[in-house]
Amino acid sequence: MSAEINLPARGSRQSVGRFVKAHLRDYGMLLSLAAIVLFFQYMTDGTLLQPLNLTNLVLQNSYIVIMALGMLLVIVAGHIDLSVGSVVAFIGALAAILMVRLHLDFVTTTLLCLLAGAAIGAVQGFWVAYLRIPSFIVTLAGMLVFRGLCLILLAGQSVGPFPVEFQRLSSGFIPDFLALDLFNVGKFHITSLLLCGALAFALVVLNLAARRRRHAVGIEQEPLALFAVKNLALAAVLVYVGQLMASYRGLPNVLIIMSVLIALYGFVTRNTTVGRRVYALGGNEKAARLSGIDTRRLSFYTFVNMGVLAALAGLIFAARLNTATPKAGVSFELDVIAACFIGGASASGGVGRVTGAVIGAFIMGVMNNGMSIVGIGIDWQQVIKGMVLLAAVTIDVYNKNKA
Amino acid sequence: MDSIQDMPILEMKGISKTFPGVKALDNVNLSVREGEIHALIGENGAGKSTLMKVLSGVYPHGSFEGDIRFRGEPVAFRGIADSERLGIIIIHQELALVPLLSITENLFLGNEQATRGVIDWDASTLRARELLRMVGLHDPPETLITDIGVGKQQLVEIAKALSKEVKLLILDEPTASLNESDSDALLDLLLQFKARGISSILISHKLNEIAKVADRVTILRDGTTVETLDCREAAISQDRIIKGMVGRELSDRYPRRTSAPGEVLFEVKGWNADHPAHPGRRVVKDVNLTVRRGEVVGIAGLMGAGRTEFAMSLFGRSYGRNIRGQAFLGGREIDVSTISRAMANGLAYATEDRKQLGLVLDNDIRHNITLANLPGVAKRGVIDHEREIQVAEEFRRRLRIRCSGVLQEAVNLSGGNQQKVVLSKWLFADPQVLILDEPTRGIDVGAKYEIYTIINQLAAEGRGVVLISSEMPELLGVADHIYVMNAGEMVAEMPAAEASQEKIMRAIMRSGETLMSGEVSL
């Protein structure tokens, strides 16, 4: 390809090594996830990446990933939100009351629930941003309040089941327009595979275009060899995952929602002025304010955003269980926060990436899933997860200090 | 035999210290005599702080090359505790005091007057009083650190050093954030210590201080010793020292410019502001200010005169409460009630506190430069990364920001280069009137000259510049018109051509007397 030939031939082994070293944190996380996947793939005799299990893995972790997107912004802005687990439960309960008791349709319910999430975020955000009460305290209060309200709504009982259309939010799969019966061994979901292939192709083309653009203005970037390996690996993984899922029931609806949100939040944090301002706010609130940024409003909106995403997660979780229970979402906040920190976010704000948080969420998810298959009890699972969190952050901090 | 005066208390020979990729110190020699005040000077990044960290054991023995002898004995410190035990005490620029503890508690932190872990408060208080008397601080020892000014905090640090039986006191830019009278008091204290046989190493950028107290001067440049000059044998001119620091003659410390102020650009009338924590206590009183197109207007005054408070209350009410007054740009009244409105109306304020208020230290140079004008590199809210890099590169070249690239984090830059990044940020915001609050504080002579050049360029472009500075020679050298502020009021104004340091000081003193006695003297 001409684009590649035009680039300077600086892809020597030495410069690759130097670049990897300089960006160890970025690659390290991805490699850790790959290592953990391979480890459990081996330990579970291949069960981990079986189509059924892979699909379950996605379904089980979708709500954590979605909330991690919002939590990342909250943490980058220098705050924390402990209430998300309770909000998940409360929104689930609200949805159950609206649909099961009041027989509202699922579209209206979804909209009302997302609105309720925004309102919850707005109230907490108001307390944090305008009344300047530390977010730890405000959301600790929120955690108690919304758990309590959830119990009140449900009167302590489980409410369900939900209408079928609502369940599809979580247990549905995208329709197959090109269903094929390959070799008469069962349905193969060709649309899913094609979608993944197209996505892989689009990503590589976009990356290449960005690389050329940066090259044109003389920005130093990763060596060509590394770029090629990275993109090929990315494309290969996407196609492989697509093929696996296609051989089961195709891509789950939730995966589509999640992917769109990941892309959206990745774009917002990297490429928009709003995203940049959130980083500046978390990095140095006073300097950001004196640069003309309305830091209070920005803090406020990170909480509103978190509320909406927590509500969405609450809907997905309720749809997955097909019932609203008072115990829903217990300790979700810890998984979500852990995902962000494993993903390299800084507890003091200003630092963190969407890709990091997503990888962090999947590291936790794969470990949960893998350890369960291997037969490790819930007791030891928690011990191991706790130590992984501590180790990940320690390595991160150590690397940063050394740099 | 030499007299005792000439015996070296400290000898550092052939000190070299390498960081990954950088040789910070290269064969540096430093010899301090018993009972002398030895000034250590050099541009930012010349290696002064690194050398002092080697001396105090922050960089332990073995992590550098060369020998250190203290009172004739070779020493090998493994940490600060080792050097402190021998009486080598370093007072850093950023004071290491706990704000919410009392003076006494801070004095004996880590060295409590205690028996078996139980503190003897009576003994502590008595000893604290004695130490405070030695440094001339008369506040009660139970006062919290947060309630006393920076000047007094500096004295507490020195008292703390005294409590540790100091033999060699190292002060890293002790007067950088002090006003003139506090600085003088501090320098007098050093002279008293000298009389009692305590040696000091004084790191400073202020050449007049060095001329006043130093016995000898060692000049560092680019990690090597340039020379050691004896100030007592013959007076050393400031130009002589500057030449050693920068390696060239700086014939003029202020760039020449032809100023041609135009019509009135910016006016403030009847500006008032109250203290944020004490409503009703006015800290800015009926201030009027006029800035012409292409004019550099200086505001002189002592620390705490209300200059920063005035500027920040003007800039989108970022300081104070109950703010009243009018601001005009080009004759039209403008809304400056929020920072974004003030900016939209052509105002910019570059803070005196780069690290706390000016920069996002963890972000790179590029992100800091574009922060105040993100729409300038974005289209409909989407940032154009290539354009952003180009903008940052342009400012790096124009302001000569010394860095490995615009992707370097601001935290690793020297003070002068950090200041240039702050200036770049506000230049990119393209203001009509730029308020610069102590833009050259704590930066070296060469960088100062560059900052002045930038100020001149801004004026030449027809903008108005307000320069707040505590260094009177700087105001006299750079400004066209000088206002003098004291206790929240503008007490005098004069064209720079008619101004002198004496005239400015007299204006401040006279207004002080007026305030005290309630009547106009002279």
Verbal overview:
The complex is a heterodimer of chains A (403) and B (522). Chain A is mostly helical. Helices cover 75% and strands 1% of the residues of chain A. Chain A is built from 17 helices and 2 strands. Chain A has helices at 2-6, 13-22, 24-43, 51-76, 84-101, 106-130, 135-154, 164-171, 190-216, 224-246, 253-271, 273-283, 285-290, 295-321, 332-342, 354-374, 378-402; strands at 180-181, 187-188. The radius of gyration of chain A is 22 Å and the shape is globular. Residues 1-12 of chain A have low confidence and may be disordered. The longest helix of chain B has 17 residues, at 501-517. Mean pLDDT of chain B is 86; it is low at 514-522. In chain B, the strands form 6 sheets. A 6-stranded mixed beta sheet of chain B has the order 6-9-10-3-11-12, with helices on both faces. A 6-stranded mixed beta sheet of chain B has the order 18-21-22-15-23-24, with helices on both faces. Chain B has a 4-stranded antiparallel beta sheet with strand order 2-1-4-5, covered by helices on one side. In chain B, α4 packs across α5. Chain B is globular. The chains are: A mainly alpha (403), B alpha/beta (522). The interface between A and B is medium-sized, with 27 and 34 residues.
